[in-house]
Specification:
Helices cover 37% and strands 24% of the residues. The chain is α/β, with parallel strands linked by helices. It folds into two domains: 167 residues, P-loop containing nucleotide triphosphate hydrolases (Rossmann fold, 3-Layer(aba) Sandwich); 77 residues, no CATH class. Strands 6-7-8-3-9-10 form a six-stranded mixed sheet, sandwiched between helices. A four-stranded antiparallel sheet has the order 2-1-4-5, covered by helices on one side. Helix 3 crosses helix 5, helix 5 packs across helix 6 and helix 7 runs parallel beside helix 8.
Length: 253
């Protein structure tokens, strides 16, 4: 049974099919890529999986459960976490507190505990430290986002998603704005998530990054899947080449 599975997933804005009948599956313990040119519908697809945009048709299943109408925060609580293209870190909070803010779901009892036990250690402290160690930022626990490089800030975004201890993390353009060397470094860090029993769906338009780190790849164009296979198969697929380089490339191949 697939950890994540979509069947006929369709998202419509007015008369536009941003996603049109998408079928994908992510098996537990796999690193799966989703690529496509700008405007192909990648981020809309992630928003649909995580409940941030409504699905017009089709289904989303996670760990065997139907997730189509489950609220975003509940999907995250059940093990489906994500990053966002815009990091939106709290610049006046430490890296540690940025992760704690994402990991915690405060209740009225937490408010009372904070009053009677000021300075208490969060029950998620261990998760935060694990997440930062996993992405190689253990020494940045007390740093502020402004103290970090752009690549490190990207990794803080990944760690923030990991602090909830997900079964599957959806990474939306984690290498955007990075140079080739930084992209390769973050790719190695992300691949290491499998060693911590975290499966990955990596969404990016950087074909080089995705083909280097993924076990299998789906390719979107105009809202639909045009190819699926191993990195080697995707690299030479004429439809993929055409989607990225134009019809002329396909004709001359």
């Amino acid at each position: 049974m697939a950890l994540l599975e979509t069947n006929g997933l369709t998202v419509t804005f007015g008369g536009l099919h941003a996603n049109d009948g998408i079928d994908i599956s992510v098996e537990r313990g796999r690193f799966v890529g989703l690529i496509g040119p700008n405007g192909a519908g990648k981020t809309t697809f992630i928003d649909a999986i995580t409940g941030f945009v409504p699905i017009s048709d089709g289904t989303v299943r996670f760990a065997g459960e139907l997730f189509t109408t489950v609220a975003p925060h509940e999907r995250a609580r059940r093990g489906l976490s994500r990053t966002f293209q815009q990091l939106e870190l709290f610049e006046d909070l430490t890296v540690e507190d940025n992760l704690l803010a994402a990991a915690e779901t405060p209740t009225w009892t937490d408010v009372l505990l904070d009053i009677v036990r000021p300075g208490r250690v969060s029950p998620h402290q261990g998760d935060v430290e694990w997440a930062l160690e996993t992405v190689g930022l253990a020494e940045s626990l007390k740093a502020f986002p402004s103290d970090l490089s752009h690549g490190q800030r990207k990794l803080v975004g990944v760690a923030r998603a990991l602090a909830a201890r997900p079964q599957l993390v959806l990474l939306d353009e984690p290498a955007a704005g990075l140079d080739t060397t930084e992209s390769q470094e973050i790719g190695g860090r992300l691949r290491g998530l499998l060693d911590h029993d975290v499966s990955v769906l990596l969404i990016d338009h950087d074909m080089g990054l995705v083909l280097n780190v993924c076990d299998e790849v789906y390719v979107l164009d105009f809202g639909g899947v045009i190819a699926h296979g191993t990195p080697a198969e995707i690299r030479t697929n004429p439809r993929v080449v055409a989607a990225y380089l134009g019809a002329e490339a396909e004709q001359s191949s």
